Task: structure prediction
Amino acid sequence: MTADRRSSPRQALGRDVVVCSEDGKPIGACHLCDVSATGARLAVAPRLLAKLPEVFILVLAKRAKVHRRCRIVWRGQDAIGVRFSKSPGVRMRSLDAASSAASAVRSPATGG
Result:
């Protein structure tokens, strides 16, 4: 068994989230498996995994009220590990776009 070297304990969440580019454009939806103060593990469909940039915005709540700038630290076949950026790096315009993206991805009309 491998020792857990994380600096922050993880908490299982199991919720759907939205991934947006840094300029707020929606990339797709994925599943937040667990989260800590410093990062998270996301279950990602292979087609989304192929187009994810190294740095992106993770929208955790509707209307982009809770979001984190993320950097991918590892990639698996159907999951990624991300580290949350300490610098905000999210422009207000991006938040508005991310809010719209989150609503569009989660709306019944899109099957989200």
Residues 106-112 have pLDDT under 50 and may be disordered. Residues 13-106 form a domain with the Thrombin, subunit H fold (CATH 2.40.10).
